[in-house]
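## tool: complex_structure
## caller: assistant
## args:
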Amino acid sequence: MRGSRMDSAGRELGMVRELVAVARLGGRVYWRDRVTLGVSVALSLLLGIGMPVLMARLGVPGVAELHVGLLAMLMTLTAFGQGATVLAARRDQLLLKRMRATGLTDAAVLGGEVVNVAAQSLLISCAIAAALSLLGAVPPPANPALFALVMAAGALAQAVLGAAYTPAISRAEVASVMTMPFFLLTGVGAGGFGPLRQALPAWAGQVLDWVPGVVVGRALAVAYAGGPVSGYILPAVQLALWTAAGLAAVRLWFRWDPRR
Amino acid sequence: MTAIQAAIHAEDLRKSYGGFEAVRGVSLQVSQGEVLALLGRNGAGKTTTIELLAGFRRPDSGRVRVLGLDPAAEPARVRRRIGVMLQEAGFFPDLTVAQTVESWCAFTPAARPAHEALELAGLLPKAATRVRGLSGGERRRLDLALAVLGRPEVLFLDEPTAGMDPEGRRDTWQVVRELAGAGTAVVLTTHYLDEAQQLAGSLVIMDAGRVVAAGGMAETLAAGSGRVSFEAPPGLGPGDLPLPAAVEGGRVVCRVEDPDLAAQTLLGWAAARGLRLRGLEVRRASLEELFLEVGADAGIADGQRGEGARHGA
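## result:
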């Protein structure tokens, strides 16, 4: 009994070690890819920092709401969009197949890629939040640690959903176009484009509330303002449901090989 | 040989894609230290067979055991003990050769040191080169370095020397020989029949998803027809000879099962008539001749080859 428990613990440890190795390789490749650096990193930093700073200088009200909405929107770009794009590209370039040819488990290959994308998204989001606080464009979050935790959970959920979305992407070249609607919906629903949502009918707002990026935005808004615990319950449940749905979709439909 | 003793044991494997049967009842065995050449035209089902054996695909029916394990049920456990050189697989183009191998060391249990794998594959001088700057042959060498990184007990090589220069091919052959000598079971697919003949102790020829010939390399070649030929003597026709013969390009050619015996018969016949058989050549069947012979027979029997090729099976 004790031996089998130790075997199981050893296997889990091995799985974590493998997952970290894949994530580290993904990180190494991420920071060498000029397209990723341009689209995912530079664009996010410019938009995420530049827009609130500009609005604050102009004295426009609601900069903090814009900041949180932009964060949710950019996490859709850097976690969901990047996750779907990276995995579709790895699949089409037969890199997933090559990684599976080693002793890595499928869970370690996929988990490592998802964790890497989520970590890069979290890093960018933290850099944006820290820069805006330092520049005085917005006040710091009420509970920075909790805010960072929500960002981490949001990035991970979005990266899982990005992986789950790849079966719908026929080839890597169309991945950016196919993830763009989610970026735009999050921008409208979470306030990344400003108070556009107020111009929509109520039912449209209720539908947008279920878009994963908008769910992340609501969780971020609660964590930023530092309200009571009850405020976290709905977005936390929604995020957990989306993550579970993403994991189930990956298990059922994830394609390791390109369509031939 | 029992299933337990064999490093690879496959029985009646079948795999279909949609309505197309890529593999139809393939059975084979490979023991430790043996090199098996899996031959066939494009679309014959070789790559699908390797993918079934390596656990990339689950067979529709049939049984596979690699090192006593089911590769479809326990793919990671099997792949920790095998090496796979895929026909097609990508690399990270922005990493250098050394960085690629070092990254793969982290994925491979008990991996060789990276420099040892690079040296084995003849890539040490290219260690600092980005993968995007490698030639096709050099990429195959990198493929080989990754496949042998974990000192595999079973090695699958799918067209390992495609695109390599002659030196690269020779180096790869040497690596395969050394690994087999150390007890690694090797399954090799190749379109270079001289390569198969050089390396393999046994062969399986596939056509349209089926095994059409199998056995030990020497025995199979010995069972194939040989050839005795010489310059056609003036004033003598094939009908004058003691064996069936034909004239091809100014030479008399006799295709026989035992070319040594045929040569003796012809020399005796010529000596008795005071004739000299100029340019006498005695050849056993080459693998290429055998392959073409078997392929032609199978092609007559089955008209689905074109379909197989289209599916890239």
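## assistant note: The radius of gyration of chain A is 19 Å. Chain A has one domain: 12-253. Handing back to user.
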